[in-house]
Design goal:
202 residues, mainly beta, Immunoglobulin-like, five-stranded mixed sheet, four-stranded antiparallel sheet
Length: 202
């Protein structure tokens, strides 16, 4: 048997073992608390956890909504996995004209009521800041991440994610950082049975 063939067999065996290991790693609820340096909870922060061996891009049936209600974006901060099509349903009686000039996703949905039929696909990681041409005060963010493990902290600064046990890279982003900032990176040990606290400068 040639060395190349042997290497190929070894590689196949190794990747099979690796995928079996990642399938075997059971996800369990993990509470994560984000605080500032003073120990106060950081609300409305996107928490994304990168678990080795998971797909960076969204599955084919992924979809999300960025609604407009009461002349505001709802939610203010939406997190989606890369490749997710996002619909922009308008629940107001007034028409909106949503746009983003962000390099992560430049788009414009001209004056509309109801739900525009074509979603906007967010195909690149990063953050898009959105406004409305009609209502200057409208401000919203779509944060795009290369992982299916993400959430946004509540007023208690906390998220709960189903994570496999182990050490994972976590990225925390909130609007005050600005859209060009990828977020604060830390490591997180999941599966210890208690909430993990992440302290950031905010
Ligand atoms: Cu508007």
């Amino acid at each position: 048997m040639s060395t190349a063939a042997r290497t190929a067999i070894l590689t196949t065996a190794l990747s099979a073992a690796l995928s079996a290991a990642s399938l075997g790693a059971q996800a369990a609820p993990q509470a994560i608390l984000v605080t500032n340096e003073a120990g106060q909870p950081v609300a409305q922060a996107a928490v994304s956890v990168y678990v080795k061996g998971t797909r960076a891009t969204a599955s084919a049936n992924a979809t999300a909504n960025m609604a407009q209600k009461g002349r505001a974006f709802q939610p203010t901060l939406l997190v989606v996995q890369t490749g997710t099509p996002v619909l922009f349903p308008n629940f107001d009686t007034v028409r909106h004209h949503v746009y983003s000039f962000s390099p992560t996703k430049k788009f414009e949905i001209k004056l509309y009521a109801g739900t525009p039929s074509a979603p906007v696909v967010f195909d690149k990681a990063g953050t898009a800041t959105m406004g409305c041409n009609i209502h200057d005060q409208m401000l919203g963010y779509i944060h795009v991440v290369d992982t299916p493990y993400f959430s946004v902290t509540g007023s208690d600064g906390q998220v709960n994610l189903d994570l496999p046990a182990g050490e994972h890279r976590v990225q925390i982003w909130w609007p005050a950082l600005g859209e060009t900032n990828p977020g604060v990176e830390q490591m997180l040990k999941a599966g210890g049975g208690q909430a993990v606290m992440l302290r950031v400068k905010s």
